[in-house]
């Protein structure tokens, strides 16, 4: 049986495909390549198309024996979602509806889902656990919460079991050096800081230094992308063993401010990395740090690439060896 990976040519999806290949899984990737890269898919069968295209998805389900889906395909930028929320509802919410309907039609009853810390909004407690309230502060997080709720009702009505993984901030690159982060435009903090280190940007803009945090900049929990990938493999195993639907946080449990990230990047790269303080970015909560106890206990997840310095070094290895990323877009 094959695992269908939607968005498998993207940053996190390609690392999950690599982890699935390492243990000999049969893989089918669906990706529009709007953000993803053909070269990022290290194995399996790649279908280029959109999951909202019904005839295209019929071909994918008819040509393969799929027993589980890992669903990465989405728009995922906080700032952009505040400007064009309609695109987020269309691609994320309607896209997931299309996927769940196809799964139901073809009798596929297991889905692992890329959710996010943005479902929580401004947290009541730090670290955040899965029982804390979910009041998103941006349209992106709101669409991810809507997708989780949709999966709940497809479980109730059709028995499709889901594991929703709420990632905190993915960072780093695969240890092979073959795959890494390459978004266009890039908006994530660590790759932008490294682009500044490479001289591809004049400086890093810090979005706000007036938050209620020790140095005034936002605090996030950075988790290595390969540790995230491992959690997906464990989640597929758990669903295959007949487990019920569940939600898990995935983070390191340690928060770093934007200024701390820049400081560590300066020491890893040995470059100056100029910094300019700018206005806050709409939709950003001040602090997002995970409690991942539940994932450790129930999934047996053991993230071990936890030092931020090592995470940034793995990203730096990728960016310095591939300053133009995959270099496959016009
Ligand atoms: P990404 O943009 O690199 O990957 C998403 C992939 O999905 C891209 O390759 C894109 O081409 C594809 N895609 C999007 N819409 C599609 C559609 N309708 N049909 C077919 N393919 C489509 O993003 P990423 O950083 O790898 O994130 C993957 C998932 O993880 C997303 O769902 C995101 O919301 C979630 N997430 C990411 C982070 C993070 O720190 N990067 C944190 C929390 C959650
Ligand atoms: N950030 C920043 N400058 C940038 C990009 C990001 O100051 O050029 C900040 C952003 O405001 C947030 C943190 O870095 O507080 C992490 O942002 P990112 O977009 O990487 O991830 P998010 O937490 O939004 O998923």
Walk me through the structure.
- With 330 residues, this protein is of the alpha/beta class.
- The chain has two domains: 2-171 and 223-250, NAD(P)-binding Rossmann-like Domain (Rossmann fold); 189-220 and 253-321, UDP-galactose 4-epimerase, domain 1 (Alpha-Beta Complex).
- Helix content is 38%, strand content 18%.
- The protein contains ten helices and 14 strands.
- The protein has helices spanning 11-22, 54-63, 78-83, 85-105, 139-158, 189-197, 225-240, 258-269, 293-299, 308-321; strands at 2-6, 26-31, 45-48, 66-71, 110-116, 161-167, 169-171, 204-207, 219-220, 222-224, 246-250, 256-257, 275-278, 287-288.
- The strands form four sheets. Strands 3-2-1-4-5-6-11 form a seven-stranded parallel sheet, sandwiched between helices. The protein has a three-stranded mixed sheet with strand order 12-9-14.
- Strand 5 (110-116), helix 5 (139-158) and strand 6 (161-167) form a beta-alpha-beta unit.
- Helix 2 packs parallel to helix 4, helix 6 (189-197) packs parallel to helix 8 and helix 6 (189-197) crosses helix 10 (308-321).
- The chain is globular and about 55 Å long.
- The two termini are 37 Å apart.
- Uridine-5'-diphosphate (UDP) binds at residues 78, 169, 187-189, 192, 204-207, 218, 220, 258, 281, 284.
- It catalyses: UDP-alpha-D-glucose = UDP-alpha-D-galactose.
- This is UDP-glucose 4-epimerase.
- Its EC number is 5.1.3.2.
- It comes from Paenibacillus protaetiae.
- Its cofactor is NAD(+).
């Amino acid at each position: 049986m094959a695992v269908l990976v939607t968005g498998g040519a993207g940053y996190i999806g390609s690392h999950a495909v690599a982890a699935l290949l390492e243990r000999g899984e049969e893989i089918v990737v669906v990706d529009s390549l709007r953000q993803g890269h053909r070269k990022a898919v290290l194995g399996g069968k790649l279908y280029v198309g959109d999951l909202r295209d019904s005839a295209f998805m019929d071909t994918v389900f008819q040509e393969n024996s799929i027993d589980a889906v890992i669903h990465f395909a989405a728009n995922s930028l906080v700032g952009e979602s505040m400007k064009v929320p309609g695109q987020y509802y269309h691609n994320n919410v309607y896209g997931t509806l299309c996927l769940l309907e196809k799964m139901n039609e073809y009798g596929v009853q297991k889905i692992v889902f890329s959710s996010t810390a943005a479902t929580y909004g401004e947290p009541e407690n730090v670290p955040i656990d899965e029982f804390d309230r979910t009041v998103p502060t941006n349209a992106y997080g709101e669409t991810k919460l809507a997708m989780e709720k949709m999966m709940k009702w497809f479980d109730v009505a059709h028995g499709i079991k889901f594991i929703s993984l709420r990632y905190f901030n993915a960072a780093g690159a695969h240890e092979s050096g073959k795959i890494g982060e390459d978004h266009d435009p890039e908006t994530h903090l660590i790759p932008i800081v490294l682009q500044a280190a490479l001289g591809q940007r004049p400086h890093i803009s810090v979005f706000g230094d007036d938050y209620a945090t020790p140095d005034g900049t936002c605090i996030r929990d950075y988790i290595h992308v390969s540790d995230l990938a491992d959690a997906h493999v464990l989640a597929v195993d758990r669903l295959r063993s007949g487990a019920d639907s569940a939600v898990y946080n995935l983070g390191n449990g340690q928060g770093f401010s934007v200024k701390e990230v820049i400081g560590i990047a300066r020491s890893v790269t040995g470059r100056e990395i100029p910094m300019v303080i700018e206005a806050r970015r709409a939709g950003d909560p001040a602090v997002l740090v995970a409690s991942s106890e539940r994932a450790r206990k129930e999934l047996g997840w053991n993230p071990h690439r936890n030092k931020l310095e090592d995470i940034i070094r793995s990203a730096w290895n990728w960016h310095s060896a591939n300053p133009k990323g995959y270099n496959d877009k016009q």
